[in-house]
Amino acid sequence: MLFLLYRGIGQTRGIQMVTRRAKAIALAALLLLAHGCSQDQSSEEPARDIVQIAGDLYRAQDGAHFTVYLVTPDGIILADPLNADFADWLRTELESRHGVPVRYVLYSHHHWDHAAGARIFDATATLIGHKNFPIALAEGIAGFPVQVTITDTNGDGGLDRSEAIGDAAAAFDELDTNNDDFVTGAEILADVLAPEVLYSDHMTVNLGGKTVELIHPGPSHSIDTTVLLFPEERTIYGVDFLNVKRLALGFPGTGTLDEWIASLRQVEALDFDIVSPGHSSVGTKADFTAYREFFEDLRETVNGAMTSGTSLEDLLASDALAEYDDLPNYVPQRDRNIEDAYNLLVSAPD
Ligand SMILES: [Zn+2]
User: Fold this and answer.
1) DSSP per residue over 56-85, as a string?
2) What is the pTM for the complete model shown?
3) Does an H or E element contain 247, and which?
4) What is the mean pLDDT of the chain?
5) What is the mean pLDDT of residues 172-180?
6) Residue 146 Cα to ligand 1 middle (Å)
7) Do residues 41 and 165 share a domain?
């Protein structure tokens, strides 16, 4: 089922953000020169790269964030734009490498660090997202977005500098468009355009003889999650709730633990060989199965602790889930996942 929507949130502000970013980069370059060209990682552009996954499907990187795109004779189907600065770089790369315009932008979800910057492709592309995308976007603007890196811990309705971590800390000044040292939901989501076409459970996009399936696996990381299936390339793309070879950064956004696992099982039932997540490594279907099994082990572990009256503190201090300690982000994510699961199950209705 399709819905047509309007767009146009914060376009002028988005352009200002690019200008501010360009100024910040120029200033950082000057400072680097003034300090004798020392290696200051914080002032460098994020690592950017494009690699071929399978057939005409490619993976593009912006630091810790990844997207994918499929090249067809009639244009390109792009997943998340990530941000305007990256999208501008990507558009130039796509023109020189493939010589066809982006015809579709397929959003994984509305979060600012994946969905911003689609205006770069807006002149040629149709933007598509789940029907809950504009609802989640409006809620994030009116209230505050639910994301691990931008938690409003003191509950004052925005992000203080001390509350921002990771990429949100790095982008704090860029996001703080009115320079009041306080970032609102409206500022964070200013450069996220709402989709022009919405779908509910499943949608197929065809272009130039190629196909992409959009699947909504239910509530998990967000209420508007979309997983992309590229049937011919036997690859899936999903963001934040979908990982391989590492633990989830934090969970869940909106669903219960059971819903999160049900979403993973729904994705696992799709016909694919390759997993291309929004963060970290590419993996196989077996890697994805192992990722889902972690959540089931986590649920069993936490359920068992609660049944036996083990406190959260004692559970954290135990060797529970130690069999996953070879994963690169086991510390600190094992503890965070246990805490999230424990708190969720404590608050879950019977
Ligand atoms: Zn997210």
Assistant:
1) TEEEEEETTEEEEEEEETTEEEE---B-HH
2) 0.83
3) none
4) 85
5) 89
6) 8
7) yes
Domain check: are 282 and 332 in the same one? yes
CA dist., res. 113 & res. 237, Å (int):
16
Distance CA 65, CA 126 (A): 22
Residue 162: predicted pLDDT: 86
Strand-pair partners of 336: none
Residues 215 and 96 in one domain: yes
d(CA 264, CA 251): 13
In this predicted model, which residue has the larger pLDDT, 43 or 283? Answer: 283
- Residue whose token pair is 């579709």: 104
Report the domain count for the chain.
Answer: 2
DSSP class of 162: G
* CB distance 224 to 262 below 8 Å: no
Return the percent helix, strand and coil in the chain, to nearest 5.
Answer: 40, 20, 40
Joined together, the tokens standing for residue 62 give 């912006």
Tell how far the Cα of 192 is from the centroid of ligand 1, in angstroms: 13
The pLDDT value recorded for residue 25 is 40
Asked whether residue 266 carries a pLDDT value surpassing 60, the answer given is yes
Helical residues (DSSP H) of 99-165, grouped into ranges: 112-115, 133-142
Rounded to the nearest angstrom, the distance between the alpha carbon of 96 and the centre of ligand 1 is 30
Q: Output the CA 310–ligand 1 centroid distance in Å.
A: 32
Domain that holds residue 338: 241-350
Q: How far is the CA of 286 from the centre of ligand 1 (A)?
A: 24
Based on the domain organization, do 76 and 222 belong to the same domain?
Answer: yes
